Amino acid sequence: MNDKRSHRGRILLVEDSPVISMEAEDRLKEADYFVVGPAYDMAAAIDLARNEQIDAALVDLNIRGEKSFDILQILDDRDIPFVIISGYADWSMPKEWEPRPRLQKPFDHKTLLETIEMLISDDD
């Protein structure tokens, strides 16, 4: 989609649950963010993370049974801030990703938007 309107930022959304993805996408659009994706699988997420203009990202920790560490690395290499989201109580991950912002699913819309605003303002 080539939307010429000005947005507050371009947010990559990587989430394999269609319900959570649609809900997050709706909230981000209502807050005037442009949603890149959403990506429902690793191949699409890696492609978008590598090739799209992105200001920040929401990345599910587990995408269809795979950990999303490759996506996180691409975003980190590009200096794109991200928040890791998960519905699992087990947040085990490599030490390098532990200090990153996280959201536990289900998350409320206010927390989602506050987290995105924090990522984008920290990037300025």
Automatic annotation (TrEMBL):
<dbReference type="InterPro" id="IPR001789">
    <property type="entry name" value="Sig_transdc_resp-reg_receiver"/>
</dbReference>
<feature type="modified residue" description="4-aspartylphosphate">
    <location>
        <position position="60"/>
    </location>
</feature>
<dbReference type="GO" id="GO:0003677">
    <property type="term" value="F:DNA binding"/>
</dbReference>
<protein>
    <submittedName>
        <fullName>DNA-binding NtrC family response regulator</fullName>
    </submittedName>
</protein>
<feature type="domain" description="Response regulatory">
    <location>
        <begin position="10"/>
        <end position="120"/>
    </location>
</feature>
<keyword id="KW-0597">Phosphoprotein</keyword>
<dbReference type="InterPro" id="IPR011006">
    <property type="entry name" value="CheY-like_superfamily"/>
</dbReference>
<dbReference type="GO" id="GO:0000160">
    <property type="term" value="P:phosphorelay signal transduction system"/>
</dbReference>
<keyword id="KW-0238">DNA-binding</keyword>
<dbReference type="Pfam" id="PF00072">
    <property type="entry name" value="Response_reg"/>
</dbReference>
<dbReference type="InterPro" id="IPR050595">
    <property type="entry name" value="Bact_response_regulator"/>
</dbReference>
